[in-house]
Design brief:
The complex is a heterodimer of chains A (about 300) and B (about 240).
Chain A: E1 2-6, H1 11-23, E2 27-31, E3 39-44, E4 48-53, E5 58-60, E6 66-69, H2 78-83, H3 86-105, E7 109-111, H4 114-117, H5 123-132, E8 140-143, H6 146-156, E9 159-162, E10 172-173, E11 190-194, E12 199-206, E13 209-216, E14 228-231, H7 236-248, E15 253-260, E16 266-272, H8 278-284, H9 288-298
Parallel strand pairs in A: 1-2, 1-6, 6-7
Antiparallel strand pairs in A: 3-4, 4-5, 8-11, 9-10, 9-11, 12-13, 12-15, 13-14, 15-16
Chain B: E1 2-5, H1 11-19, E2 25-28, E3 39-40, E4 49-52, E5 55-58, E6 64-67, H2 85-101, E7 107-108, H3 123-132, E8 140-144, E9 163-168, E10 171-173, H4 178-191, E11 195-200, E12 209-213, H5 221-235
Parallel strand pairs in B: 1-2, 1-6, 6-7
Antiparallel strand pairs in B: 4-5, 9-10, 9-11, 11-12
The chains are: A alpha+beta (about 300), B alpha/beta (about 240).
């Protein structure tokens, strides 16, 4: 059996649900909106044995062949927030914890295992892993020292800053005006990177399949600026490197952010372990949702 | 300098700092991450600076690090504006993961992407890992009946009945039983932990493994002393 775990109105989940239905393969959708109406009874030794039941589904954990995980924090679910009681929150948390725990160790194909996704919660940590697979990464400085920032800025000419964690932030360019802020106490060190010119590429790796989308934009962060997007065939060597990187991070499905410089160098920014692939497939006419559904179905 | 990464409210860490005073031990708490002076370049960690106990310290002075912090939580960031705490906690955790993972820094336990203090697992996952290694385990029962308040906690034997075996590098403390020692060592090796508590249903060859954690009590003189040679070896 195939299990999809997430929210129905989340576009990547909706895409794979539609594709699974179109393929006609049986699957169970663990809808997070129903977390308060779900229950489980599981025993753990060298494996996880037991069932997870909801209003419209019943899953024998040992019969699961593949799982697509795109869940949101139980504490943030509208149903849990609305319910408000500590018992409801504890129940939602228990369901979430048990599913995460099982997904980490299940012999099923898991796209992706929660522990494998964790590297993306620290960009500089993940960058060190990325570099070990042969990609260049932007020169980086993490600091709360104004003099160090100024020296880094003077060395590179153009510098951007962005969050280190999984919290989404808009990439922005460092300017002279920012230095006034260094006179006030900071909450924590900030990540600065040498600006890398070029065109962005979002590479989705799904097992051995590679889908690439080129994004051309004048903005420092194309997500927040005008852009044009088109399918683009990667050089074989770069596609292979992306496959190795994805596999090395234990990610069956990954969204890799690259930039190709005017000199033709390929620089990697990060690997997204739970890619919002629909944004790119819609712009490029790709069928990543169908490929993902087939990938899950093949495991059965 | 020996650096203990821990909450400033961590009494065990404070006791360990006092015990290792001769190693120039100092506490690095999340508050230190809000102080100016940090410089970390992943390409060149050795030339950077940390802030430890309020003092700016050249990275080259730090000879070993012991971590007792799974992540930075908002509750210890009272010195930061309320609206900024959640973001700061995530950023601090992200930063510490990168910093503590740097190959130039000798760290016990080396962090993982899911825990700054080593190979974190949920309680039932420790049992699962041990079971996969062929170690006899006590089954965990996880149960959450539909909308039954307060009945959804994992069912597990009470902690008071556990026997704890502590792995500190090559040392094995807490039991003389060769079978339990072998099981504890095997688990620690499999998960890559230098410091690990492993819990059994009792002492003796028939004891079942019921869990583990990465929080050995560093205020226990036997554990602190067992760790000391590792820290001083790195120092030399």
């Amino acid at each position: 059996m195939i299990v999809v775990w997430g929210l129905e109105d989340d576009a990547p989940v909706a895409g794979v649900l539609r594709a699974l239905a179109a393929l006609g393969v049986p699957f169970a959708f663990v809808d997070q909106r129903e977390v308060l109406a779900s229950r489980f009874d599981v025993e753990v030794d060298h494996g996880f044995h037991g069932r997870l039941d909801g209003p419209t589904w019943s899953i024998d954990l040992e019969a699961v062949s593949a799982v697509y995980v795109r869940s949101y924090s139980a504490a943030d679910l509208a149903a849990v927030v609305r319910a408000g009681s500590s018992a409801d929150q504890a129940h939602a948390r228990a369901v979430e914890e048990t599913l995460l725990s099982w997904a980490d160790v299940s012999p099923a194909l898991v796209v992706n295992r929660p522990s494998a996704m964790a590297s993306n919660n620290s960009k500089p940590y993940q960058a060190s892993l990325i570099r070990s697979y042969g990609f260049d990464v932007p020169e980086t400085l993490v600091t709360s020292d104004a003099a160090a920032v100024r020296a880094f800025w003077e060395r590179h000419g153009t510098v951007v800053y962005k969050s280190m964690s999984g919290v989404r932030s808009q990439v922005a360019r460092l300017t002279a005006e920012h230095f006034a802020r260094f006179d006030t106490p900071c909450a924590c060190p900030t990540q600065f990177q040498a600006y890398v010119p070029g065109h962005d590429h979002r590479v989705h790796v799904l097992g051995a399949d590679v889908f690439n989308c080129e994004i051309v934009s004048d903005a420092d962060d194309y997500r927040y600026g005008r852009r044009t997007m088109r399918p683009y065939e990667l050089p074989v060597e770069i596609a292979d490197r992306c496959r190795r990187l994805s596999a090395g991070l234990d990610l069956a499905f990954a969204g890799i952010d690259l930039r190709c410089t005017p000199e033709g160098a390929w620089v990697c920014f990060e690997v997204n372990p739970s890619p919002g692939y629909t944004f790119f497939q819609d712009a490029c006419g790709q069928s990543i949702d169908m490929a993902l559904a087939r990938f899950l179905a093949r495991s059965g | 300098m020996l650096v203990l990464v821990a909450s400033e409210h961590d009494l065990v860490a404070r006791q360990a700092v006092a015990r290792w005073a001769s190693l120039d031990a100092a506490l690095l708490s999340p508050r230190d991450l809000s102080r100016p002076g940090w410089t970390y370049a992943p390409d060149d960690c050795g030339r950077g600076y940390a802030v430890v106990g309020g003092r700016r310290v050249a990275m080259s002075r730090i000879t070993s690090v012991v971590t007792r912090l799974p992540c930075v939580v908002v509750e210890v960031l009272g010195h930061i504006a309320r609206d900024d705490r959640e973001y700061a906690a995530a950023e601090m955790t992200a930063f510490l993961l990168a910093w503590l993972s740097d190959r130039e820094l000798p760290v016990v336990n080396r962090p993982t992407a899911t825990c700054l203090a080593g190979p974190h697992r949920r309680p039932e996952q420790w049992v699962h890992t041990a079971g996969q290694l062929g170690i006899p385990v006590q089954r965990w029962h996880l149960r959450a009946p539909r909308l039954a308040p307060c009945a959804n906690e994992p069912v597990c034997p009470p902690p008071a009945t556990f026997a704890c075996v502590t792995i500190v590098g090559a040392c094995c403390l807490g039991t003389e039983d060769a079978v339990s020692r072998a099981h504890a060592r095997r688990l620690a090796e499999a998960v890559g932990a230098m410091l690990l508590n492993v819990y059994f249903t009792g002492h003796g060859r028939d004891a079942l493994l019921v869990g583990a954690d990465v929080w050995p009590d560093l205020s226990d003189p036997r554990i602190a002393d067992a760790l000391r040679p590792f820290l001083t070896a790195r120092r030399q």
